[in-house]
Amino acid sequence: MRLIFLGPPGVGKGTQAKRVCEHFSIIHLSTGDILRAEMAAESEIGQKAKSYIDNGELVPDEVLLGIMDNRLKKEDAQNGYLLDGFPRTIPQAEGLDSIMNNISHSLDGAISLTADEDELVQRLINRGLESGRSDDTPEVIRQRQKVYWNQTAPLLEYYEQKNLLKEVDGLGDIPEITERILSVLK
Fold first, then answer.
1. Tens-digit pLDDT profile for residues 103-148
2. Is residue 183 part of a domain?
3. Is residue 186 part of a domain?
4. 55 domain residue, yes or no
5. Higher pLDDT residue, 166 or 55?
6. Euclidean distance between the first and final Cα of the chain, in Å?
7. How far is Cα 119 from Cα 141, in angstroms, rounded to an integer?
8. Is 19 assigned a catalytic role?
9. With bands split at pLDDT 50, 70 and 90, how would you rate the model's confidence at 85?
10. Element housing 4 (H / E)
11. Is 92 part of a structural domain of the chain?
């Protein structure tokens, strides 16, 4: 099973990704986690990524595509994976298609988790207070929401045209949302 999770910041992609990966025994590849690890290591790419992320901007495509190309070729990705936070733009999706074609992989679905924007902003503010994440301040959250709707939302149509898009209500109890996701994948 090879999946993509889409949805605005705060919709619960990471939480649901872990549960779905457990169900299918596939790996969870979170671009955010990969980038945060690079930032924590203070690598050159991590410092570059941090400057974009702290301003609520997206990391440039060529950086992310290079990271994903290397990651999808690793042994643990050969039995399936769930991409969380990637792709975020049409050029990234096209780059991912190219990477997947080169390694003979194909997508089984693109899950779009949906939710009310105001509720998502409040969720992220609460997460920032609990976790201390530098990108969960009200100003950065609003910027990330704007970036999502301007740059990422067109992916919904992209994957709809490929008959891969499955929209799932992202509000409710965590197990209930997981069941909704699993039922659209059957």
1. 999 999 999 999 888 888 888 888 878 887 777 778 888 888 888 8
2. no
3. no
4. yes
5. 166
6. 11
7. 12
8. no
9. confident
10. strand 2-6
11. yes
Which helix (H) or strand (E) segment holds residue 121: the answer is helix 117-131
Looking at per-residue pLDDT, the higher value among 47 and 20 belongs to 20
166 among known catalytic residues: no
On the question of pLDDT at 63 being above 80, the answer is no
**139: its two tokens:** 């100003």
Please identify which of the residues 18, 36, 48, 133 carries the catalytic annotation.
133
Give me the CATH number covering residue 88.
Answer: 3.40.50.300
Tokens of 30: 């979170």
Strand order in the sheet with 165-169: 27-30, 81-84, 2-6, 109-114, 165-169
- Per annotation, catalytic residue among 123, 144, 166, 180: 144
Indicate yes or no: pTM above 0.70. Answer: yes
Annotated catalytic residue: which of 13, 50, 123, 166?
A: 13
Which structural domain, as residue segments, surrounds residue 163? 2-174
Active-site residue 36, yes or no? no
Number of domains in the chain: 1
Tell me the range of 10-24, 59-73, 132-146 where mean pLDDT is highest: 10-24
Tell me the pLDDT of the chain averaged across its residues: 89
Alpha helices in 25-116 (DSSP H): 31-40, 44-53, 61-72, 90-102
